Amino acid sequence: MNLLEGERLDNLQNGYWMIQDNKDFCYGIDAVLLSAFTKVKRGENVLDLCTGTGIIPVLLKAKTSGNHFTGLEIQEKSVDMARRSVEYNHLNAYITIRQGDVKDASQIFGAASFDVVTCNPPYMTAHHGLSNAYLPRAIARHEVFCTLEDVVRQAADVLKSRGRFYMVHRPFRLAEIMGVMMKYKVEPKRMQLVYPFADKEPNMVLIEGLKGGNSRITVEKPLIVYERPGVYTGDIKRMYGDGR
User: 74, 90, 157, 167 — which has fewest CB within 10 A?
Assistant: First the structure.
């Protein structure tokens, strides 16, 4: 493979590789956590909104028996890297990367088209200190092109009845997340808080919603990332595989 200037090839430790750009917003542990939290059954079709360079579809293809995985991304450069990663891993039959706006997802794919929708969206609203002058990173971190409500509304539109929505986000927006999900009839059903260390506040939340589900939520045991600085807990090591 011929990598472009500034690109690198990351070993995912599961038989697959990902093209990343050193100066762009690269995937992080939140993508790994989301893929581990997401449940995909045999034969199901999955859409990943805000897919970036396609990390979630590749991770889900590696760990589930889903039928097909589609990634939707607005940034042309990220789409190009994602498509080249899919090609490099010989996954064209299983993963499709589409360029487009999250706000147009239901127009692009049609209503009730997917069994599962995942999203690792921008966490910060447009007025949460948008100071990153480098646009690709700003788009990844801040709601420049889409809001939380855009994501949930479109997820609800493209999900089949009783379809499942999975998202990783920040706990400081949890009340808003719950409210928006219920507004669009995606009932919160499962939640897990992620803590960097056992004695710190949580800095991520994983949440599962069911389209048309009844009101009942299960809160899973907390997930701790580090035993001590630089050393993952056993739970995180198992998510990454023996190579980490």
Answer: 90
CB 168 within 8 A of CB 123: no
Q: How far apart are alpha carbons 167 and 207 in whole angstroms?
A: 5
> Collapsing DSSP states into helix, strand and coil, what is residue 150?
helix
> How many whole angstroms separate alpha carbon 137 and alpha carbon 152?
22
* pLDDT, greater one: 20 or 140: 20
**What does the alpha-carbon distance between residue 58 and residue 46 come to, in Å, rounded to a whole number?**
11
d(CA 161, CA 54): 26
Q: How far is residue 229's CA from residue 190's CA, in Å, rounded to a whole number?
A: 29
Q: How many CA atoms lie within 13 Å of 218's alpha carbon, on the beta-carbon side? A: 5
Q: What's the rounded Cα separation, in Å, for the pair 33 and 170?
A: 13
Mean pLDDT, range 67-74, rounded to an integer: 97
Q: Between 148-158 and 174-183, two packed helices, what is the crossing angle to 10 degrees?
A: 40
Could you read off the pLDDT of 200-239 as tens digits, one per residue?
A: 999 999 999 999 999 999 999 999 999 999 999 999 999 9
Q: How far is CA 239 from the centre of its chain?
A: 15
DSSP code, position 124: B
This prediction's pTM? 0.91
Q: Are 224 and 233 in contact (CB under 8 A)?
A: yes
Structure tokens, 30: 């939140």
Other C-beta atoms closer than 10 Å to the C-beta of 211 total 22
Round to whole Å and give the CA distance between 186 and 108. 21
